Amino acid sequence: MLTETLAMSRVSARWVLRLLMADQEENRVKASPQFLRSYQRESDAFLDRIITTDESCFYYYDPETKSQSSVWKHTSSPPPKKACVTKSVGKHMFILFMDRKMMLLTHAVPKGETVNADYYCKVSFNFI
To answer: How far is residue 46's CA from residue 39's CA, in Å, rounded to a whole number?
Structure first.
């Protein structure tokens, strides 16, 4: 009845990711064929040698998820918006190292430390 008679649909607030810079996109396009050729030659052995890293802040509580914030709306009404609010006073930054099978290292960044290329090199060197 909601979808057919009242022309309503269930939607979630839209989250917009950071966009890549033009040079970052170009680097990914150039690297892709090299990765594909290596994978074709070596199969899963190639994938087993890849280690990736990311940094993330973990908060002391979980804010409302995208699915929890979904609402019913009429097709003619605008989509809902969700303001970015401060998640929590307490948070901690971590650098995560993982391969395709598991987490290899979780490094807690000391409070007040700047994470840049030099810091990554220091953490990576200790990891190896």
So the answer is: 6
